[in-house]
Write a structure and sequence with these properties.
Number of domains: 1
CATH class: Alpha Beta
CATH superfamily: 2,3-Dihydroxybiphenyl 1,2-Dioxygenase, domain 1
Shape: globular
Distance between the termini: 31 Å
Radius of gyration: 17 Å
Length: about 140
């Protein structure tokens, strides 16, 4: 279907959720609630744990479990998943980045990179327990 044939609709206004995959949900839950300070919304056994991030949600799935077909007909979410490390970038005001760097280091989290982009925005990169790349960046990165 070409663009000329598509109905005229507005693009999505914001990202509602993003997913990362981690086989060890206990470690992921401890990391995202403890180290990152996110509010846990829901945990379902060894399948997933969800966290509030501003107006959106960060979904952490166990890839072994989400590859299975849905078991609840009332929630017919298709099987899905990914292998290998993913990436998520969380917005952080520049004035808070030094404090976050210290917090991460105190929690034993290795900082992979801490640098300034050509537009002047700063990013700090590190890994979660699933090996996913997590970035804290000034929102002006995408201005």
């Amino acid at each position: 279907m070409s663009d000329e044939q598509l109905p005229n609709t507005a693009p999505p206004p914001h990202l509602l959720e993003a997913a990362l995959y981690c086989a060890d949900l206990d470690a992921a839950e401890a990391f995202y609630s403890g180290v990152m300070g996110l509010t846990k919304l829901q945990r379902v056994g060894d399948r997933h744990v969800f966290f509030r991030v501003g107006s959106g949600v960060l979904l952490i799935f166990n890839p072994e479990e989400t590859e299975k077909p849905p078991r609840n007909p009332a929630l017919p979410v298709p099987a899905h998943g990914a292998r290998g490390p993913g990436h998520v970038c969380l917005a952080m005001p520049g004035a808070a980045l030094d404090g976050w760097r210290a917090r991460l280091l105190q929690a034993g989290v290795e900082i992979e990179q801490d640098f300034i982009w050509p537009n002047g925005a700063r990013s700090i990169y590190f890994r979660d327990p699933g090996g996913n790349s997590v970035e804290l960046a000034e929102p002006r990165l995408w201005e």
